Amino acid sequence: MQFRLLNWDRRSWWGEDLQQITDFRDESLIKKTLSGRLFHGTIGQGFEQRSVIVKTWDFHLPFKIGQYQLTYDFCDQIEFFTNKNANTHPKLAKLCTFCCDTRLAAVYDEKFDENITRLLSDVILEDDFGWDDRMKVAIQLAQLLIWLHEKAFDFGSVSDHMHKGVKVPGKCHSGWEAPDQGMFAQASSFLMFSCNMTAKSDVSVFGLLLVELITKKEVDDLFFFPIQRDKKNIVDESFKEVDPETASRITSMTYRCTEMKADDRPTMKDVLNVLETAAAKMGAKGEKRKRDATNEAIEAAKYNK
């Protein structure tokens, strides 16, 4: 791999340099990912030391089935995070450096605190990850994708890099960081049906994520069966605060996002409009519930006097 041919403007590090950032021991492991692992790390010296996250792409030569795309994924991710048209968004993790010597690894200028930071892949199916937080993730990711589309980021060809366009949204929202491709990885087989990656490819990937956000279930092949897509509401029944109209609108929009034909999918701006309208409606209801509860408490206090 001759990375200098890509004209990347950040200096790559050697393996011994990377070893000074993290020791790659179990004590430093944050979690395993679909491509490798995430580690705690420290960069800089003295008072300039700061915490970072090290992501690795793990494989052994000769390649096993399914591992060929890892090198492409590494190249795509470095290219994405060094693209000046794409890497200035405040919600994206910042790339410090990368290594392609003894291992493939990228170092992100992000601190991972187990007490306040959780990976989306760890909580997306959990009950304690509430509806409001799920909508924050969806809205902020939609805003990020719109921003990237307006920057005309080059998505590339599926025939060259099947996973091209699989992006890493650094901070999904305050306190929830995801410097990993996990949330988008399942889309790769679905995207094989198109010839080129476009903004509408991002819409389909986003739709698959949205399915998991609102259903609290992993997407499987059954989701694309006509009988499944006839359902008016796929929002998990545990989200009692979601009214039928809102649930139906989001369900319908999710189906549209994951249509097989790109022309049948909405734009990310259309998606964002539905999500923001739903969030505003839920927010208004939440405020009304708070006011009603406050008034009831005041009346109860008067009565007790």
TrEMBL record:
**Domain of life per record:** Eukaryota
Which segments show compositional bias classed as Basic and acidic residues? 284-294
User: InterPro entries, alphabetically?
Assistant: Kinase-like_dom_sf, Plant_StressResp_Kinase
Keyword Flavoprotein in record:
no
Single GO MF descriptor: ATP binding
Q: Which UniProt keywords apply?
A: ATP-binding, Kinase, Nucleotide-binding, Phosphoprotein, Transferase
Disordered: where is this region?
Answer: 283-305
Instruction: Indicate whether Protein transport appears among the record's keywords.
Output: no
Record-given protein name: Protein kinase domain-containing protein
* Organism, as annotated: Capsicum annuum (Capsicum pepper)
Where is the organism placed in the taxonomic lineage, from the top?
A: Eukaryota, Viridiplantae, Streptophyta, Embryophyta, Tracheophyta
